[in-house]
């Protein structure tokens, strides 16, 4: 028999590390230990099980060839022993043992040669009065998901409140509203959804889309207490109002389960996450850790960051398995790529948002744009919205975020840039990034290339833009007559707005502008707009070449303003 390897935690990281080790070193004695009865399941699929898109919970625990990943599967197919409903209570590093406690209360010690910690994360405890009431759930495990779906299916929920507007919160809001028709409200303490992951414009666009689907939002509010009747939740009281609810989902962030490691004297970081090196070793060379319980370096800032992503856990598990078997592998710094489906659209991104980049000390700016996701002449096409964050002084690309109704197309663009971010690419690399081209799939000048060009134009001082929020402020000045708006689209497109806003909205097509300069008002600033921002930028160049410099163009034009939720 080979060396003895104990793996604490048997979901994504632990299962992957154990299986990889056994493939490389079949004589290793491997034991998986988990405190739950459900192991090796796809936690990111939980919202889709609750919604009904995934019919049975066992599908999240099954292989692609329909084998249930339970204790028998790991023993018969992988030659890996499994202990479920068993909690590891201590790591005795000097003795190279762990202490375990089984469901019946019995305890024992298990020796190891090498140890893997994959204890995952837990839903952050909000410590809110009344959170012990029935009908209040968190989404921390497959067991939680089964309980939530059972409650919904039994007719116990007509109104729901989701606390938190991050990944899980928004996915659960979609699941409750779309598939079950439950009147759903999302409460978020921040002033936008997906805080820390996308900028305010993309966040508001996604929020507007979800509101169109019937989900209500309460932003900038915090939950004060839960009130109940007959032992079940009935109301959610925030610092501003009271919401009726017979179902509550708490999805206000997660935190790593690093206490076991910390108690054993292993080094942990700012949020209690375990610190590891590039080979996923802890400060004890015989103990590895990965997944949702660790901190790893960010590829852009170099600082430790927390990235609880199932995809990253699987990659780290393979690296750990390699190193356990003596095959030296490293896990590179991460850029935090993500995507979340929200009804008929998605939000995705990689790297830093503008706000985060500024907090990290970069001289950062961002550019936004929208463009068709394929050739303009192809019959099926949709607008895609992207934001690029760059450092003004070095021209380094720091992050990219996007939204679009064709999720595969949108996330494909994000992934292309994400693959470059660790190399600290310049704007020019984005402008010239090679994409496969065919009209049913993309434009000859792909939207990512165009986004890089927009950043180049801004950095070089050729473009002078405003975003949606700034336009909303300018709109008040336009209505007062202090600022003149010029619609640079074709006459037919501008006519509807000219009739709706006589004397305020003036249409001058971009190709006629140079011949109609005498129609521009003397001494007034101009706001130039078109459908997506391309023609208004051309108009800006035309005007500035003629000495008319007091003008701005609108990022993304009318299309982005509409998607942002502005009623014009």
Automatic annotation (TrEMBL):
InterPro entries: FAD-bd_OxRdtase, FAD/NAD-bd_sf, FAD/NAD-binding_dom, FAD/NAD-linked_Rdtase_dimer_sf, Pyr_nucl-diS_OxRdtase_dimer, Rhodanese-like_dom, Rhodanese-like_dom_sf. Keywords: FAD, Flavoprotein, Oxidoreductase, Redox-active center. Residues 479-559 form the Rhodanese domain. The keyword Flavoprotein applies. Pfam families: Pyr_redox_2, Pyr_redox_dim, Rhodanese. Its cofactor is FAD. One of its GO terms (molecular function) is oxidoreductase activity. Belongs to the class-III pyridine nucleotide-disulfide oxidoreductase family. This is NADPH-dependent 2,4-dienoyl-CoA reductase/sulfur reductase-like enzyme.
């Amino acid at each position: 028999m080979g060396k003895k390897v104990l793996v604490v935690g048997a979901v994504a990281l632990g299962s992957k590390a154990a299986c990889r080790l056994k493939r490389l070193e079949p004589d290793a004695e491997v034991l998986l230990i988990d405190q739950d009865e459900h192991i090796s399941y796809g936690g990111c699929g939980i919202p889709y099980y609750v919604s009904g898109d995934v019919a049975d919970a066992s599908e999240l625990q099954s292989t692609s060839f329909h084998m249930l990943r339970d204790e028998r599967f790991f023993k018969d197919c992988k030659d890996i022993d499994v202990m479920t409903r068993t909690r590891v209570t201590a790591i005795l590093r000097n003795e190279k043992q762990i202490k375990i406690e089984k469901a019946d209360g019995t305890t024992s010690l298990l020796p190891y040669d090498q140890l893997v910690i994959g204890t995952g994360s837990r839903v952050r405890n909000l410590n809110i009065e009344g959170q012990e009431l029935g009908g209040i759930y968190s989404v921390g495990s497959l067991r939680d998901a089964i309980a939530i779906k059972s409650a919904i299916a039994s007719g116990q929920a007509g109104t729901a409140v989701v606390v938190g507007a991050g990944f899980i919160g928004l996915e659960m809001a979609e699941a409750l509203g779309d598939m079950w028709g439950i009147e759903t409200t999302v409460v978020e303490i921040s002033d936008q959804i997906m805080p820390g992951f996308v900028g305010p414009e993309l966040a508001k666009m996604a929020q507007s889309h979800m509101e169109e689907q019937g989900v209500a939002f309460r932003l900038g509010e915090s939950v004060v207490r839960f009130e109940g009747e007959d032992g079940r939740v009935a109301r959610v009281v925030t610092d501003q109002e009271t919401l009726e609810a017979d179902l509550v989902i708490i999805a206000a962030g997660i935190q790593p389960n690093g206490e076991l490691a910390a108690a054993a004297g292993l080094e942990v970081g700012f949020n209690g996450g375990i610190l590891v090196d590039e080979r996923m070793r802890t400060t004890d060379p015989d103990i590895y850790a990965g997944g949702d319980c660790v901190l790893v370096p960010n590829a852009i800032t170099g600082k430790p960051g927390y990235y609880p992503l199932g995809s990253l856990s699987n990659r780290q598990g393979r690296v750990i398995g390699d190193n356990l078997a003596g095959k030296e592998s490293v896990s590179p710094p991460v850029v935090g790529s993500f995507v979340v489906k929200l009804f008929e659209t998605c939000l995705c991104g990689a790297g830093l948002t503008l706000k985060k980049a500024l907090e990290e000390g970069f001289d950062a700016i961002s550019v936004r744009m929208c463009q068709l996701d394929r050739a303009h002449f192809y019959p099926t096409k949709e607008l895609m919205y992207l934001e690029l964050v760059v450092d003004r002084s070095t021209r380094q690309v720091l992050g990219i975020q996007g939204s679009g109704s064709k999720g595969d197309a949108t996330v494909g663009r994000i992934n292309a840039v994400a693959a470059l971010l660790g190399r600290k690419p310049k704007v020019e690399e984005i402008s010239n990034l090679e994409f496969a081209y065919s009209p049913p799939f993309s434009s000859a000048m792909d939207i990512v290339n165009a986004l890089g060009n927009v950043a180049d134009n801004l950095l070089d001082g050729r473009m002078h833009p405003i975003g949606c929020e700034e336009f909303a402020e300018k709109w008040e000045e336009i209505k007062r007559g202090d600022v003149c708006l010029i619609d640079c689209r074709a006459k037919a497109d501008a006519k509807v707005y000219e009739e709706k806003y006589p004397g305020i909205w003036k249409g001058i097509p971009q190709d006629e502008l140079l011949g109609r300069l005498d129609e521009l008002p003397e001494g007034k600033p101009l706001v130039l707009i078109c459908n997506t921002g391309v023609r208004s930028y051309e108009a800006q160049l035309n005007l500035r070449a003629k000495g008319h410099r007091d003008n701005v163009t609108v990022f993304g034009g009318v299309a982005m303003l509409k998607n942002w939720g502005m009623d014009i």
